[in-house]
Every structure is written in structure tokens, then in C-alpha cells.
Amino acid sequence: MMISLFSLFLVFFSGNIIHQIVNVFFLLVKENWTKEIREAPHKILP
């Protein structure tokens, strides 16, 4: 029981870290895009 809980926690924790890194990466990319494409903001949004 403890091993499965620990592995679940590890998976969730690593997934959370990956999610945070992806969030920061997309924030940086979005900022660069808004600097380059200021006239067409609809190209940035999906």
C-alpha cells in the first residue's frame, strides 16, 4: 500500500514539475510572440 502511494506521489510530483516548466516555457513563447506580432493577436490564441 505504501509503495503504491509513494509511486503515485512521485508520478504526480514529477508531472507537476513538468507542468510548471511547460507553463513557464509557454509564457515566454507567448511574450516573444506578442512582441513580434502586436498587430495580429488572434494568431497567438488557438
Average residue pLDDT = 78
Relative helix content: over 70%
Largest sheet: none
Helix-strand sequence: H
Give the radius of gyration. 17 Å
- Multimerization state: single chain
Which outline best applies?
rod-shaped
Question: What would you call the structural class?
Answer: mainly alpha
Topology:
Elements: H1 2-36
Descriptive tags:
mainly alpha, 1 helix, 46 residues, single chain
Describe this structure in words.
76% of the residues lie in helices and 0% in strands. The mean pLDDT is 78. The chain has one helix spanning 2-36. It starts with a helix and ends in a 10-residue tail after the last helix. The longest helix has 35 residues, at 2-36. It has one domain. It has 46 residues and is mostly helical.
Give a brief outline of the structure.
With 46 residues, the protein is mainly alpha-helical. It has one helix and no strands.
